[in-house]
Each structure stands twice: as C-alpha cells, then as structure tokens.
Input
Amino acid sequence: MKNLFPDDYLNSILDVTPAYLRERGLGGVILDIDNTLIGHNVPDPDERVLALLDEYRREGIGMCVVSNNNGGRVKPFCEKLGVGDFVPNAMKPAARGYRLAAERLGLPPERTAAIGDQIFTDVWGARRAGCYAVLLRPIHKGGEGAFIALKRLCEAPLLKIIKKRFPGR
Output
C-alpha cells in the first residue's frame, strides 16, 4: 500500500524546478508524457515546458521519458523536447522501465525523480523501482479513454488522502 503514495504532490511540472531537485539530492528526472508534460494526445509541448527542460540541461539534470505509449508516439515527441533517452512501451507500473531510465541517467533510482499524473501507473511504478515519486495534478482530464477514466475513479479515495498529506497543494 505504501507504494501507492508519492513522496510529493505538486500542481505542475513547472513546480519541479532545478532548485527543487537539488534540495532533495536528485540529479535526474524520469518523465511521463500525457497529462504530465502535455495534455492527453496533444502533439506539441508547451513553451514553458521546453524552457524548464532547457533549465534542466543548463543545470546538468539528466532526463529520460518513460511511457506506456508506443515508440511512434514517444520518439517524435522526445525529439521535440530535445530529450534523447526514452523508454516506450514501459508497461508501467512495472519497475523495469524506471530502473532502465535511472541506469541510462547514470544515477541510482533513489537520486532520480519520477514524475507523473497517475497513482496506479506512475507513482506505483516509481516507488517499486526505488525512485523519488512526484505526483502531479493532471493537465487535463477527459478524452483519455475508458480505461484511464476507470483508473482515475479508483484513484479518487487515495487522492483524498494524498491531498491531506500535502495541504495547500
């Protein structure tokens, strides 16, 4: 059960600044795509997200995308982000994709922040791999399909507890 609770709960990827990462001893980020960096099935990243990723590069923070999407979605999106490392078809919440990403970043999982918007995929997978799990509010709910809508419904009771653990967020 503890693997379903994140280490932190934030409003947006924009809250995960280089200073935030340094304060926690984290040297790399593992990023989800849909509803973490962009809205679900949106083709292009937001300029503010691109600016944040540029900050990561300047600060020497490694980045890897881990997604359950296939390579046809992940690779072109990562090219737009300027992120060279990615793990498509990760089968989250399996820990394998997160461990592979941390290895590619040259960091132990505990020095890597795994950032996503879903408890049963992103948080659970990150925690199982030993990463610092950051849960974000989804950028946009809706249009995600029946399976994700069902997962969000199942996540609702846990999300109430999480929001109490992180008041004001």
Summary: The chain has a mean pLDDT of 93. Residues 2 and 127 are 9 Å apart (CA to CA).
